[in-house]
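User: Is it possible to get a 3D structure for a protein together with its bound compound? The compound here is NAP. I've pasted both below.
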Amino acid sequence: MPHLSIIVAIAENWGIGKDNELLVKIPGDLKHFKEITTGHMVIMGKRTWYSLPNRPLPNRVNMVITDVPDEELEDGCLMAYSIEDAVQKADPEKESFIIGGGMIYKQFLPLADKLYLTRVHKDFNADTFFPEINFEDWELISEEKHPEAKETAGFEFTYQIWERIKSS
Ligand SMILES: NC(=O)c1ccc[n+]([C@@H]2O[C@H](COP(=O)([O-])OP(=O)(O)OC[C@H]3O[C@@H](n4cnc5c(N)ncnc54)[C@H](OP(=O)(O)O)[C@@H]3O)[C@@H](O)[C@H]2O)c1
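Assistant: Yes, that's possible. Here is the predicted structure of the complex:
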């Protein structure tokens, strides 16, 4: 079983996206995302792939999941045709990152052993949401608060890393 980690930015109301775009620009979050995921496989649904302004994400193996049999997208990404197929194609020796979107997070949450959350402390109008996390199954291993963003972005946010301690 590969080491599967989820990385996601979540609003207070659990929104993660609207109209196939991110909800908000979070100061420093793209850099944070790049630092954590560079050198690793990133696994995403086809809608998230098409939402990326620049594809593929550089210096990462990009894997895109689709239900369309044998579909191949542009050069630069590997394809998977089911969750099981993606799990099988991930490197069992390395941490791989589930990078969205809503459908993919929902199916991978039970399989993930680590969560990298950017918790945005504000509600946003959204059409895509992160599934409910039972925090009793997880242990908070690091937390970094960013109250200063209130001035520049209009909201505070917190980086958190959680490790699974049990399965529901
Ligand atoms: N806040 C964040 O950190 C964050 C991160 C990433 C994305 N997002 C947001 O999330 C939204 C997109 O999420 P979404 O839920 O609409 O789409 P998605 O999860 O990115 O992609 C959905 C697509 O993935 C494929 N798929 C899903 N489950 C599958 C399975 N079991 N087997 C085979 N293929 C499967 C299907 O592709 P086919 O239709 O080709 O079969 C499906 O249409 C956007 O608003 C985006 O900006 C937010």
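The pocket of NAP is lined by residues 8-9, 16-18, 20-22, 44-48, 51, 65-68, 81-83, 99-104, 107, 128 (CB under 6 Å). The mean pLDDT is 96.
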